[in-house]
TrEMBL record:
This is DNA polymerase III subunit delta. Gene3D superfamilies: P-loop containing nucleotide triphosphate hydrolases. Its EC number is 2.7.7.7. The keyword Transferase applies. The lineage of its organism: Bacteria, Bacillati, Cyanobacteriota, Cyanophyceae, Oscillatoriophycideae. Signal peptide: none annotated.
Length: 319
């Protein structure tokens, strides 16, 4: 059975993970590193299905393992993702969206979640040779959470941890040194097209703007496409062009702050960097807008009042 059949364009990573299972040389920690949206989470799921099924021979039992891993209810698997806090309660991104929560900051993996990992690993695995913990977007851990995870990585017991992150630089060196790095690469155009077609997003292939921003990441392409669909059309048309004067910059800043939550504003910065950079290359803008937009991102991440951030940024760019 090919457990990695659904993972496209990551041959080297598949070979390394398959070989680790066949030789029974499972590392206590893995770092799946590479751009967002290129299959790291899918690879983790496939790897876990293979690992949990390694000593099974009956197809019925293998199918049961696969189903439970995919549904997230296997007793030896803990899948951790960044959360939002709302009135003292942690919410997953999906739960926050369903609750209509206005997201004022990006989600993060919190110290309480790292403590839950420790508790989960304090008991022996129930069905498999080892327990598995996956940390999505591991780069969102604060220093306290990362230091808390370090002890678990040093003495995981009968367990393996998989950290998923966009780059090595996004994690503490002490965490990186305790993990085996598995590199994932952006997809070539043929593989990109195959993934999007299989996922029912073939229409994206004809959108040059989305494909240009995605740069070989199907997940990014889908995310950009969905974000563009959710943005008000009139606002989208306005932000594509630099404000003509200071007054229009202030009006646009007000509109952005009113229409978009902070997380959507952070995405908008990526979008504007792409749009304005193309205009700069074409000679439509006299100076690069990338630096002021990058500063705006840092201000938003540091909880500066969003409207003020956009006012200063847009006024600075249009002058």
């Amino acid at each position: 059975m090919d457990y990695f059949e659904s993972l496209i364009g990551q041959t080297q990573a598949v070979e390394l993970l398959t070989e680790a299972v066949s030789q029974n040389r499972i590392a206590p920690g893995y770092l799946f590193v590479g751009s967002n949206g290129i299959g790291k989470s899918l690879a983790a799921r496939c790897f876990i299905e293979l690992l949990f099924s390694a000593n099974l021979t009956e197809p019925r039992l293998i199918t049961s393992v696969q189903n439970r891993v995919r549904l997230g209810n296997h007793p030896d698997l803990l899948w951790v993702e960044p959360t939002y806090m709302n009135q003292g309660k942690r919410l997953s991104p999906k739960e926050a969206e369903e609750a209509g929560l206005k997201r004022k900051s990006p989600p993060q993996i919190r110290l309480e979640q790292v403590r839950e990992i420790s508790n989960f690993l304090s008991r022996p695995p129930l069905e498999s040779a080892r327990s598995i913990v996956v940390l999505e977007q591991a780069e969102t851990m604060g220093e306290g959470a990362a230091n808390g995870l370090l002890k678990t990585l040093e003495e995981p017991g009968k367990a393996a941890l998989i950290l998923i992150a966009p780059s090595v630089d996004s994690l503490l060196p002490t965490l990186i040194s305790r993990c085996q790095k598995i590199q994932f690469n952006r997809l070539n155009p043929a593989a990109m097209a195959e993934v999007l077609q299989q996922g029912g997003f073939g229409e994206i292939l004809s959108n040059s703007e989305v494909m240009g921003m995605a740069q070989g990441s199907p997940g990014e392409a889908i995310g950009i496409w969905q974000q563009l669909q959710s943005m008000p059309d009139d606002l989208l048309q306005k932000v594509k062009q630099l404000p003509r004067n200071l007054r229009s910059a202030l009006e646009l800043a007000k509109e952005i702050d009113k229409a978009l939550d902070t997380e959507s504003q952070l995405w908008l910065i990526d979008y504007l960097q792409h749009c304005y950079w193309q205009q700069f290359l074409a000679g439509g803008i006299s100076r690069s807008p990338l630096e002021p937009l990058e500063k705006a991102r840092q201000y938003l991440l540091n909880y500066v009042q969003p409207r003020l951030v956009w006012e200063c940024t847009l006024m600075g760019i249009c002058q």
